[in-house]
Amino acid sequence: MENYQFEKKPRVLCLHGHATSANILKKELVLGWPQYLLDKLDLVFLDAPFLLQDKVDAHDIFYPPYYEWYQATEDFKEIYNFEECIQYIEANMEKYGPFDGVLGFSEGAIVTASMPGMQRDRVALTKVPKIKFVMLIAGAKFGGVALGCPKLASNAFASPIECPSLHFIGEKDPRILNEEELAGCFVNPVVIHYPEGHKVPNLDAERTETVIEFINKVKKIKMPLQGNSKL
């Protein structure tokens, strides 16, 4: 089977945060990232599989429905329905892929960060091409200081993850230690610090250039030839 370099924009699956939606993450990226940066990626936004039933007050400017990728106990030490979440993601990757990378924010970044390790160990995501890169905004590590670990992801961080990674860490985020811990799980992570809290960052010219450099680097990664499928 022949190899090829990306001929088109990298196709990226985007996973939103807890109690938001695909539409909300799309709007947050449009508001915070320059259009010329967004134009370099083929972004596909996916709603999480579980409709959130609780009342949500966090998004005065965004309308429901709101979703979540999994459920957890109040202290986040027990994670539920994670296997169903990954099966759902894999089915959508088959349907709308092939994908080159995955972007996640907050809860979506937690899920995204675990995917390369599970795929490496062949415990999940075996029906889709290898994830070539991840972009993690305000993420955390399953089994780290703040989170329990679902069984399926129990070995996802057992060894350093060699998948190229771009990490966005907010300097005013109260969960900054979780994000730094996560970045340390990857080999040669690219880290962008931004002067905001737990949110999709507003990127200035310097930070935008760092993202573009990362994109240009991963575009050079060779990957197996795959068929195309469209939304």
From TrEMBL:
A Pfam short name: FSH1
Record domain Serine hydrolase: where: 8-207
PANTHER family: OVARIAN CANCER GENE-2 PROTEIN-RELATED, SERINE HYDROLASE FSH DOMAIN-CONTAINING PROTEIN
Protein name as it appears in the record: Serine hydrolase domain-containing protein
Lineage summary: Eukaryota, Viridiplantae, Streptophyta, Embryophyta, Tracheophyta
